[in-house]
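Let's do one together. I've listed all components of the complex below, 229 residues spread over two lines.
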Amino acid sequence: GAVVSQHPSRVICKSGTSVKIECRSLDFQATTMFWYRQFPKQSLMLMATSNEGSKATYEQGVEKDKFLINHASLTLSTLTVTSAHPEDSSFYICSAGRTGFRDTQYFGPGTRLTVL
Amino acid sequence: AQSVAQPEDQVNVAEGNPLTVKCTYSVSGNPYLFWYVQYPNRGLQFLLKYITGDNLVKGSYGFEAEFNKSQTSFHLKKPSALVSDSALYFCAVAIYNTDKLIFGTGTRLQVFP
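Okay, and this is what the predicted structure of the assembly comes out as:
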């Protein structure tokens, strides 16, 4: 149990286009999902907390209009990178917890975004 | 401020030998600590966690971790390393009164045959 999927696993796009990344909890419901960004050979940086049915909470320094998050159901959260630029190229990882507060977070396999 | 430190960028160990990956933390309140492993171009896999109770926590793939409150440490251990254990290991602590995790910088474990 506790499987989290992400789609796509890899995407290459041109500068200026928007890219949507989906995060799904396959065998459990997740009221809260998290989006992280990981640069090469670095740790994970929390971008935002996604709550089902409400607005996402963004970490300091993360542009809300740049990284749009929608958590429309208990099993799906999406991250849209709008008007992507090469500096947005990164590895994006989502996670979800099963029961809420202080629960173990289970991570998706990640999405490699390359903006040309 | 809450933080977690992994002092070693890389740990090298021979197959069959015991391994230790170090983690120290600084938190407000009771610590909620986690270990995750990441294989190349993959997401993180949960290994184990400490919430409360026994200081020695057993997890997946034969890993265990020892919570030491006085030393504010949560070192990951395994009695006998396998080549397949070679990966990037992250220690994480939950921020007080939230669901958010703070991750350490990661330690690359290299197990040599």
